[in-house]
Amino acid sequence: MKKLILVPLFTTVIYAGDSWYDKEDIVKGKELFTKNCAVCHGKEGVGPKGNWREKLPNGKMKPPPLNGTAHTWHHKPELLKQIIKRGGATYGKGYVGWMPPFKDKLSNKEIENVLKYIHSLWADRVRKDYDEFYKIK
Ligand code: HEC
Protein backbone atom coordinates (compact mmCIF):
# COMPACT_ATOMS: atom_id res chain seq x y z
CA MET A 1 0.00 0.00 0.00
CA LYS A 2 2.78 2.43 0.94
CA LYS A 3 4.56 1.81 -2.36
CA LEU A 4 1.49 2.75 -4.37
CA ILE A 5 1.43 6.18 -2.76
CA LEU A 6 5.14 6.80 -3.06
CA VAL A 7 5.50 6.09 -6.77
CA PRO A 8 3.26 8.86 -8.15
CA LEU A 9 4.70 11.32 -5.64
CA PHE A 10 8.20 10.63 -6.91
CA THR A 11 7.14 11.15 -10.52
CA THR A 12 5.71 14.55 -9.67
CA VAL A 13 8.96 15.66 -8.06
CA ILE A 14 10.99 14.68 -11.13
CA TYR A 15 8.54 16.44 -13.43
CA ALA A 16 8.69 19.69 -11.44
CA GLY A 17 12.49 19.66 -11.67
CA ASP A 18 12.39 19.24 -15.43
CA SER A 19 9.86 21.95 -16.09
CA TRP A 20 10.91 25.13 -17.91
CA TYR A 21 9.34 26.98 -14.97
CA ASP A 22 11.97 25.85 -12.50
CA LYS A 23 11.29 27.68 -9.23
CA GLU A 24 14.94 28.44 -8.53
CA ASP A 25 15.43 29.86 -12.02
CA ILE A 26 12.43 32.15 -11.52
CA VAL A 27 13.77 33.36 -8.16
CA LYS A 28 17.15 34.12 -9.80
CA GLY A 29 15.35 35.79 -12.69
CA LYS A 30 13.43 38.00 -10.30
CA GLU A 31 16.64 39.13 -8.60
CA LEU A 32 18.23 39.97 -11.95
CA PHE A 33 15.09 41.76 -13.08
CA THR A 34 14.91 43.86 -9.92
CA LYS A 35 18.57 44.84 -10.31
CA ASN A 36 18.69 45.50 -14.06
CA CYS A 37 15.24 46.09 -15.46
CA ALA A 38 12.84 47.40 -12.83
CA VAL A 39 14.34 50.91 -13.02
CA CYS A 40 12.65 51.27 -16.43
CA HIS A 41 10.02 48.54 -16.61
CA GLY A 42 8.75 48.99 -13.06
CA LYS A 43 8.65 46.67 -10.09
CA GLU A 44 7.32 43.29 -11.24
CA GLY A 45 7.13 44.67 -14.77
CA VAL A 46 4.12 46.93 -14.18
CA GLY A 47 5.49 49.53 -16.58
CA PRO A 48 5.95 53.29 -16.29
CA LYS A 49 3.56 55.72 -14.64
CA GLY A 50 0.75 56.99 -16.86
CA ASN A 51 -0.10 55.68 -20.31
CA TRP A 52 2.76 53.50 -21.60
CA ARG A 53 1.42 53.80 -25.16
CA GLU A 54 2.12 57.53 -25.26
CA LYS A 55 5.43 58.40 -26.90
CA LEU A 56 8.07 60.39 -25.06
CA PRO A 57 8.68 63.98 -26.21
CA ASN A 58 11.62 62.71 -28.33
CA GLY A 59 9.36 60.27 -30.20
CA LYS A 60 10.72 57.18 -28.45
CA MET A 61 8.63 54.54 -26.74
CA LYS A 62 8.20 54.38 -22.99
CA PRO A 63 9.44 51.09 -21.50
CA PRO A 64 6.30 48.93 -21.85
CA PRO A 65 4.90 46.85 -19.00
CA LEU A 66 6.24 43.29 -19.18
CA ASN A 67 3.65 41.72 -16.89
CA GLY A 68 1.34 40.60 -19.68
CA THR A 69 -0.83 43.73 -19.83
CA ALA A 70 1.03 45.11 -22.88
CA HIS A 71 2.26 43.21 -25.95
CA THR A 72 5.23 41.22 -24.66
CA TRP A 73 3.34 37.96 -25.19
CA HIS A 74 2.76 38.84 -28.88
CA HIS A 75 6.47 38.21 -29.45
CA LYS A 76 8.03 34.82 -29.80
CA PRO A 77 10.54 33.73 -27.12
CA GLU A 78 13.49 34.09 -29.53
CA LEU A 79 12.62 37.72 -30.28
CA LEU A 80 12.25 38.58 -26.59
CA LYS A 81 15.70 37.10 -25.96
CA GLN A 82 17.13 39.16 -28.84
CA ILE A 83 15.60 42.38 -27.48
CA ILE A 84 17.15 41.72 -24.07
CA LYS A 85 20.53 40.84 -25.63
CA ARG A 86 20.73 43.64 -28.18
CA GLY A 87 18.45 46.25 -26.62
CA GLY A 88 16.08 48.56 -28.44
CA ALA A 89 18.44 49.43 -31.31
CA THR A 90 17.22 46.44 -33.31
CA TYR A 91 13.59 46.66 -32.27
CA GLY A 92 12.35 46.31 -35.84
CA LYS A 93 10.11 48.04 -38.38
CA GLY A 94 12.53 50.93 -38.72
CA TYR A 95 12.19 52.00 -35.10
CA VAL A 96 15.44 52.63 -33.23
CA GLY A 97 14.83 52.16 -29.53
CA TRP A 98 16.84 53.18 -26.52
CA MET A 99 16.72 50.13 -24.25
CA PRO A 100 20.36 49.22 -23.46
CA PRO A 101 21.74 45.83 -24.60
CA PHE A 102 22.43 43.24 -21.91
CA LYS A 103 24.54 40.76 -23.86
CA ASP A 104 27.75 41.80 -22.08
CA LYS A 105 26.08 42.05 -18.69
CA LEU A 106 23.99 38.89 -18.50
CA SER A 107 24.81 35.35 -19.63
CA ASN A 108 22.42 33.39 -21.87
CA LYS A 109 21.30 31.41 -18.85
CA GLU A 110 20.65 34.61 -16.88
CA ILE A 111 18.63 36.05 -19.75
CA GLU A 112 16.60 32.84 -19.86
CA ASN A 113 15.96 33.11 -16.12
CA VAL A 114 14.79 36.71 -16.50
CA LEU A 115 12.47 35.58 -19.28
CA LYS A 116 11.07 32.81 -17.09
CA TYR A 117 10.38 35.38 -14.41
CA ILE A 118 8.66 37.67 -16.93
CA HIS A 119 6.47 34.75 -18.11
CA SER A 120 5.60 34.00 -14.50
CA LEU A 121 4.08 37.51 -14.21
CA TRP A 122 1.54 36.87 -16.97
CA ALA A 123 -2.05 35.87 -16.24
CA ASP A 124 -2.47 32.07 -16.21
CA ARG A 125 -4.65 32.10 -19.33
CA VAL A 126 -2.15 34.17 -21.35
CA ARG A 127 0.78 32.05 -20.25
CA LYS A 128 -1.02 28.78 -20.97
CA ASP A 129 -1.91 29.82 -24.52
CA TYR A 130 1.61 31.14 -25.14
CA ASP A 131 3.27 28.02 -23.79
CA GLU A 132 1.02 25.77 -25.83
CA PHE A 133 1.68 27.76 -28.98
CA TYR A 134 5.47 27.82 -28.56
CA LYS A 135 5.62 24.37 -26.98
CA ILE A 136 7.19 25.60 -23.73
CA LYS A 137 7.00 23.07 -20.92
C1 HEC B 1 16.93 52.34 -19.66
C2 HEC B 1 15.61 51.74 -19.65
C3 HEC B 1 15.47 50.24 -19.84
C4 HEC B 1 16.09 49.23 -19.14
C5 HEC B 1 17.13 49.34 -18.02
C6 HEC B 1 15.52 47.99 -19.64
N1 HEC B 1 14.62 48.25 -20.63
FE1 HEC B 1 13.52 46.86 -21.68
N2 HEC B 1 12.74 48.33 -22.84
C7 HEC B 1 12.97 49.69 -22.68
C8 HEC B 1 12.30 50.42 -23.75
C9 HEC B 1 12.31 51.93 -23.91
C10 HEC B 1 11.68 49.47 -24.56
C11 HEC B 1 10.89 49.72 -25.85
C12 HEC B 1 11.86 49.68 -27.04
C13 HEC B 1 12.88 50.79 -27.03
O1 HEC B 1 12.53 51.96 -27.24
O2 HEC B 1 14.08 50.49 -26.83
C14 HEC B 1 11.95 48.16 -23.95
C15 HEC B 1 11.48 46.96 -24.43
C16 HEC B 1 11.65 45.72 -23.81
C17 HEC B 1 11.05 44.48 -24.24
C18 HEC B 1 10.10 44.28 -25.40
C19 HEC B 1 8.69 44.40 -24.84
C20 HEC B 1 7.61 44.38 -25.84
O3 HEC B 1 6.46 44.14 -25.41
O4 HEC B 1 7.84 44.64 -27.02
C21 HEC B 1 11.47 43.51 -23.38
C22 HEC B 1 11.10 42.04 -23.40
C23 HEC B 1 12.34 44.15 -22.42
N3 HEC B 1 12.42 45.49 -22.70
C24 HEC B 1 12.97 43.49 -21.39
C25 HEC B 1 13.89 44.09 -20.54
C26 HEC B 1 14.67 43.35 -19.56
C27 HEC B 1 14.53 41.86 -19.28
C28 HEC B 1 15.51 44.25 -18.96
C29 HEC B 1 16.55 43.98 -17.92
C30 HEC B 1 17.51 42.90 -18.18
C31 HEC B 1 15.23 45.55 -19.55
N4 HEC B 1 14.25 45.41 -20.51
C32 HEC B 1 15.86 46.73 -19.17
C33 HEC B 1 13.73 50.28 -21.70
C34 HEC B 1 14.55 49.61 -20.78
Molecular structure report:
With 137 residues, the chain is mostly helical. The protein has one domain: Orthogonal Bundle (Cytochrome Bc1 Complex, Chain D, domain 2). The chain has six helices and no strands. Helix 2 (23-36) packs across helix 5 (108-121). Bound molecules: heme C (HEC).
Output the keywords:
137 residues, mainly alpha, Cytochrome Bc1 Complex, Chain D, domain 2, 6 helices, 50% helix, binds heme C
Short description:
The chain has 137 residues and is mainly α. It is 50% helix and 0% strand.
Tell me the Rg in angstroms: 18 Å
Helix-and-strand structural type: mainly alpha
Helix residue percentage: 40-55%
Q: Can you tell me the overall shape?
A: globular
Q: What do we call the CATH topology?
A: Cytochrome Bc1 Complex, Chain D, domain 2
Taking pLDDT < 50 over at least 5 consecutive residues as the criterion, the unreliable ranges are 10-16
Strand content: under 5%
Distance between the termini: 32 Å
Please tally the β strands and state the result.
Answer: 0
**Biggest beta sheet summary:** none
Series of H and E elements: HHHHHH
For the record, the CATH architecture stands as Orthogonal Bundle
What small molecules accompany the polymer chains? heme C
